[in-house]
Design goal:
The protein has about 400 residues and is of the alpha+beta class. It has twelve helices and 15 strands. The chain is globular and about 60 Å long.
Length: about 400
């Protein structure tokens, strides 16, 4: 969808640290985390935004999440705001931004608040009543693990989709390991100079328990990915090429952003660069080939923006597998080693709903550091689908 007159003020976009699953955020509801992070971010921004609505991205049910967006808005001190809740697996952030941007483009005034959050730790175990079954035995489902393991349409796990694409493209383990190590090197760039890249947008959080509170200002649970160490790791599945080092880990976190018009932002006294939203794009590929989906999604967004790959100055991806970026680089004709400056979800983890929002935040700040330019964010999602955003940061 082509977008005009819609922007994200770069200073009005944020993310919490991402916390490896079963870590210190495991006992914290993702709704509580979202409220904490959003309130802190808005207070730090110091702008009284004329919000019209909240768009909540949440893919893993939490206690009291039934009411969705309006509950989060009220707890953030915005009790007058209506809201919607969107769940589209790993594409949730882009779907939320797409919704907020379309609303902004139609109305032209005010602002939308996008809040994304998820906790993969302690995902619910659901019991579905079946009164007509023998003995009334219910159906049961582990919300996250069961769905990671099997696509109900294609019948394959997410890992198997990566193996299938790697086999089709002739990608071997050594190539995957090398790119995983490269992504870790890029992440270290984000930590340089006392985390100078992350500090402007990463909101510290209070997690843990009442008895053992933990204050986190940076990602927790990121493990070094050094080529000389991971080369000896076996594939995660017998006969495959994807090791645990070449795939992401589940995580907990929250991220958000403000969607408004350039005129509204400047009228409110917002200084600093704006990220002008140019287009969003969505796509679906053949069954059980999920890592391919970012390519057609990205091309769709670029086409709607009237741009081509050669116009893009920086690319960020949600890449749960290193296979994703190698396929994308081959299909788009770009250098895989230059994609994902300052790291990616492959390294710092994947909480589902907020993963894309963090990638978009990082993309904007990477463009600010180069003096502006056009950026593409694209990523895959369950159901062999992909979602993308094209934006342009002021020079």
């Amino acid at each position: 969808m082509r977008l005009e007159g819609v922007c994200i003020p770069v200073g009005a976009a944020w993310s919490s640290p991402f916390v490896r699953w079963q870590g210190p955020a495991a006992e914290v509801s993702s709704l509580d985390l979202a409220v904490q992070v959003t309130r802190r971010a808005l207070e730090r921004g110091g702008v009284e935004w004329p919000f019209r609505e909240v768009v909540l991205g949440l893919t893993i049910p939490q206690k009291e999440s039934f009411f969705g967006g309006p509950t989060v808005a009220a707890r953030c001190g915005l009790p007058h705001l209506p809201g919607v809740m969107i769940a589209q697996a790993c594409a949730t952030s882009v779907a939320c931004l797409h919704t907020a941007a379309a609303s902004q483009q139609l109305r032209g005034e005010g602002a939308g608040l996008v809040v994304t959050t998820d906790r993969t730790s302690n995902s619910p175990y659901l019991v579905y009543p079946r009164p007509g079954a023998p003995g009334g035995a219910p159906d049961c489902e582990h919300w996250m693990l069961d769905n990671f393991e099997r696509d109900p349409v294609a019948g394959f796990s997410m890992l198997e989709t990566a193996e299938r694409v790697a086999a089709e493209a002739g990608i071997g383990k050594a190539e995957l390991d090398a790119l995983a190590a490269r992504r870790y090197e890029q992440y270290l760039d984000a930590l340089a100079d006392d985390r100078a890249f992350q500090r402007p947008w990463m909101i510290p959080v209070s997690v843990g328990t009442r008895r053992e509170p933990v204050e986190l200002a940076e990602d927790w649970g990121v493990r070094p990915v050094l080529l000389e160490e991971i080369a000896s790791l076996p594939p995660a599945r017998e006969g495959g090429v994807v090791s645990y080092a070449a795939q992401t880990h589940p995580a907990d976190g929250s991220a958000g952003l403000v969607v408004t018009s350039p005129a509204q932002a400047r009228a409110l006294g917002v200084e600093g660069p704006l990220a002008h939203l140019r287009a969003t794009g969505f796509a679906r590929v053949a069954p059980a080939t999920m890592p391919k989906a970012p390519v057609p999604a990205g091309l769709a967004a670029l086409a709607d923006a009237g741009l081509s790959v050669s116009d893009v100055h920086a690319i960020k991806t949600h890449n749960p597998f290193a296979v994703n970026d190698l396929w994308l680089a081959r299909e788009l004709g770009v250098d895989a080693g230059e994609v994902n400056p300052y790291g990616s979800s492959l390294v710092y983890g994947h909480p589902q709903g907020p993963t894309g929002a963090r990638g978009i935040v990082e993309l904007m700040h990477a463009l600010v550091r180069r003096g502006g330019g056009i950026g593409l964010f694209t990523g895959c999602a369950a159901g062999d689908s992909g979602a993308a955003v094209v934006l342009e940061v002021d020079g």
